[in-house]
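This part of the workshop introduces the protein records we will be handling. Each record describes a single protein and holds just a pair of labelled lines. Instead of coordinates, the fold is spelled out as a row of discrete tokens. To make this concrete, we reproduce a full record directly below:
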Amino acid sequence: MSKNYLGEFEELILTMVGILEKEAYGNAIVERIGKELDRKVNLSAVHITLYRLEDKGLVSSEMSGATATRGGRRKRYFQITNAGIAQIQKLQGQRQQLWGLLPEF
């Protein structure tokens, strides 16, 4: 399978990182998917997918400063890269092309 191939869940997470912009971190992604799609996703699955997307160069990450509200722990924020933007634009174009081939029901 190609390194650029994205499964449905990877595409979903990549899209959410783009939507959330500078507020994209694990729990925020889980909450937004629940709100927008009425879909429950596992936080661990989101984190694994974010790291996989980072390995593919589609997102980058950085750690925030520690806060008292998190017991001194830091958050890892993700941001979509130019390659990630190009990938979701390509996927959108492919989806639109396929939708155009569907007969009217």
